[in-house]
Amino acid sequence: MSYPFGGRSHYSVIIVGGGQAGLSLSHCLQQRGVDHLVIEKRSLVHSWRTQRWDSFCLVTPNWQCQLPGWGYLGDDPHGFMVKEQINEWLAGFVAHVKAPAIEGVTVERVSRNPATGERERFSVQTDAGTYTADQVVVASGGYHRPIVPRLAEKLPPHVAQYHSAQYRNAAQLPEGAVLVVGCGQSGAQIAEDLHLAGRKVHLATGNAPRCARFYRGREVVDWLADMKYYDMPVTEHPLREGVRDNTNHYVTGRDGGRDIDLRRFAQEGMELYGLLSGFDGRSFELQPNLRDNLDSADATYNRINASIDKFIATQGIEAPPPSVYTPVWEPAEERTRLDLAAAGITSVVWCIGFSPDFEWVDAPVFNGRGAPVHRRGVTNEPGLYFLGLPWLHTWGSGRFSGVARDAEFLTQAILQRSDEKRAGGVTAAVAELRAA
């Protein structure tokens, strides 16, 4: 093959993935003069352009958009950028970083260099040729394979099916009622989008939690930031690494930001059900747990607000009085069957997330579920790192708010690994990083 950038095939560092995580690390490495290459399967920051619906907006305020050397530039720090604004801001970040990157190239395998037996080098095989690197950072995210259950295969062919990554707007779907499956951030917001467009929506819920948008005179995110929640490392979270498997709280930044209350949607005509568990050829089968799902979400909502109440009291802050959410609607019964034809359902939107795909990383760094084992992105395989994963270190690790801090940390780990190799052993600094 013809290698770019002067025909080089070896780099000190290769970064796999050109999203905000990979570009953040590229920025940090450039600041330290470390030669590297970013390899992106599609185009830089492509997922923000291709995997978001038309009305998509941030669910965190604009002031939390803090990539390395590139913070939020607008005049509405407490607003929520919409899709077009997000992509414009990210395009500016791409231009700011000027990463040494190749696009449209798929990494097929990362392993210790098998051709020469050089254990100190990695082989990075792509569909455009093979590179080698002293160190490799996997920054491809954790949302690779759209999850669609096998029961989808049982649905009749006239029912249009979409994953949340494919959904754009209500007009995209055929006329008729829509079943939305899942009520995490994507499911709740897509259900709302369809509901506001006047479509008849049936929503199969899950155990997703929810939170308030505003409470006691401020954005809830502002309160949590003052409470240092976003600085809490995963090692100090009550759930430890288990928090990485949690579903995100549903809330929206749409129209300036507001709560998403599924009970209110039900008052307005949306049909709510428990967890979808099957399809018998005629009817969807649902678990009788709608009431539990709604109650659990509300309990989380009130628990977060109660923690804010405690903080306000402890700090002696003047604020509007506290409140407790009380349900505005209760299900009259638990419905366990939904007849496809009788309900007039012509489309289904699957909003049950993504699964990671790291099969191309040939290294003993994964647990039994295929998730990488690491401490703040540093694995036990010397020179191999992960970046941009949810709760890699803090709540913001997979978001615009925390990836810069993680990228800076990995930059230090990469530099210290280089020092270790030159010294011919493990330096005290590297040993400290591994134990951190």
From TrEMBL:
GO MF terms held by the record: flavin adenine dinucleotide binding; monooxygenase activity
Keyword Nucleotide-binding: no
A Pfam family: Pyr_redox_3
Domain of life: Bacteria
InterPro entries for the chain: Auxin_biosynth/cation_transpt, CHP04046_FMN-dependent, FAD/NAD-bd_sf
SUPFAM superfamilies according to UniProt: FAD/NAD(P)-binding domain
Keywords: Oxidoreductase
Name of the molecule in the record: Flavoprotein involved in K+ transport
Species annotation: Variovorax boronicumulans
